[in-house]
Amino acid sequence: xxxxxxxxxxxxxxxxxxxxxxxxxxxxxxxxxxxxxxxxxxxxxxxxxxxxxxxxxxxxxxxxxxxxxxxxxxxxxxxxxxxxxxxxxxxxxxxxxxxxxxxxxxxxxxxx
Amino acid sequence: xxxxxxxxxxxxxxxxxxxxxxxxxxxxxxxxxxxxxxxxxxxxxxxxxxxxxxxxxxxxxxxxxxxxxxxxxxxxxxxxxxxxxxxxxxxxxxxxxxxxxxxxxxxxxxxx
Lengths: 112, 112
Description:
Chain A has no helices and 11 strands. Chain A is mostly beta strands. The radius of gyration of chain B is 13 Å and the shape is globular.
């Protein structure tokens, strides 16, 4: 089955710097890759997603890149702000019809 | 617009007691429904999912069960809770297996 590895587990950056979180997946049939942000004690919220027919997607300060050959995808946050501090989860859909398999999360801290 | 309701928000139960957590979705028909558990500081583990009334798939063997008595209602149950059942339980919905999942606010379950 699908296996999703996420790195790093913790990430600390200064306000205004960029943050990059990377995930690898094992199932070459996976075709959907969402990213979620979870603030302490709150629900995970979808922030961006990408499908396998696209290499990059951007939404304001957030972007996701996908390398199908290498089976990895990354979240890029530019001009980080303290409110970006949260735990970020990547996920990959298992096969073409399966469920989401989540990474273990990255705790991002943005220092003012 | 679609909304998802989950209750209760917090629950403290003794070991061996029964459990019933409820989740309802509004504003959509025939959604896919999911139950996840998140242990403290950990990722999201899929417990059950349902693609229709009375259709339940279990992802991991455990002390819990799920039911879908109505199109937009998903219930997580246990006859006798274990200490290991403690965690943050999240319900989610999507319009299809390859569509974004949207999470409820979760139930924080503590077993004493």
